[in-house]
Amino acid sequence: MTEQEATDLESEFGVRFPRGYRKAVTDGYPFSIPSEELSDDAESLRIFNTDCREEDPWGFPWRPDYWMTGGDGLGGFYFIDTREPDSRVFYCDHENMPSSMEDTERIAVLPFSEFLDEIAAVQEEMALWENDWQQRVANRRWWQFWIPRQWPPNPKS
């Protein structure tokens, strides 16, 4: 998202993004591929946050200064409190919804820098996994599927 799109979202929703969050989702997006947890798509963020404000989907009152940053792809969601300058990230699991923001056993909180580090670690792990599978597929031989686990095979006693 561009700086102008971020400014437009701020004025549309009446919020002021914390500096760390704003820097991460604008032109300095820290990941090579988009992350569900930290969306940098202005239109998706507009839709997410409009829905949160209109439908109260999470089981506790959604304050106007909360800003949904993205989800985990499984129904859980991440959000920040735009009144806080340190950009803490809150996480709620859809299967264990809190009754309020004070329900600290059901709401996980991370500093924004750790949140970014965790996303980067997951993306790195997924890239390594993908590379490993590509190597396995590229180097396999047709006959390797039929080789016994031990050679020569041991007859049963």
Describe what this molecule looks like in 3D.
With about 160 residues, this protein is of the alpha+beta class. It has a single domain (about 5-140), classed as SMI1/KNR4-like (3-Layer(aba) Sandwich). The protein is about 40% helix and about 10% strand. It has 4 helices and 4 strands. The protein has a 4-stranded antiparallel sheet. A hairpin with a 7-residue loop joins strand 2 and strand 3. It is elongated, with a radius of gyration of 22 Å.
- Total strands: the figure is 4
Tally of structural domains: 1
Class by helix and strand content?
Answer: alpha+beta
- How far apart the termini lie comes to 68 Å
Largest sheet: 4 strands, antiparallel
Q: What is the CATH superfamily label?
A: SMI1/KNR4-like
User: What is the helix content?
Assistant: 25-40%
Unreliable runs, pLDDT <50, ≥5 residues? none
Radius of gyration based on Cα positions: 22 Å
CATH class placement: Alpha Beta
- Which architecture would the CATH scheme give at its second level? 3-Layer(aba) Sandwich
Main sheet: which strands, in order across? 1-2-3-4
What average pLDDT do the residues reach? 81
How would you sum up the global shape? elongated
Strand portion, in percent?
5-15%
Order of helices and strands: HHHEEEEH
Would you tell me which CATH topology applies?
A: SMI1/KNR4-like
**Count of runs of 4 or more consecutive helical residues:** 4
